[in-house]
Design a protein that fits this description.
Helix content is 63%, strand content 0%. The chain is mainly alpha-helical.
């Protein structure tokens, strides 16, 4: 059985590291979101967050600003719910 994200300080630090972006606007939105919500993220939300962090900065910005909605592999309830929370942060 693997250790949950919240129970593992290494996983939590890795999440913060992955959240660092080259585009300042993305970095600000994501950092603000994590400052408020990181401690309450479920493992499913962390997985969705990690999927978003795999995107290029331009694609991520379009999703965060609701200029686009997730499609393909990203079109899942967990990603939609997480984006809704991130957009409100």
């Amino acid at each position: 059985m693997s250790i949950s994200h919240q129970a593992d300080p290494v996983k939590r630090a890795r999440l913060r590291w992955r959240a660092r972006r080259g585009l300042l606007e993305n970095d600000l939105i994501i950092s603000r979101f994590l400052d408020v919500h990181e401690a309450s993220l479920t493992d499913e939300e962390v997985e969705a967050f990690s999927s978003l962090m795999d995107l290029a900065d331009g694609e991520l910005m379009d999703l965060l600003l609701a200029r686009k909605e997730p499609d393909g592999e990203l079109d899942s309830p967990h990603i939609h719910a997480l984006l809704t929370r991130m957009r409100k942060a």
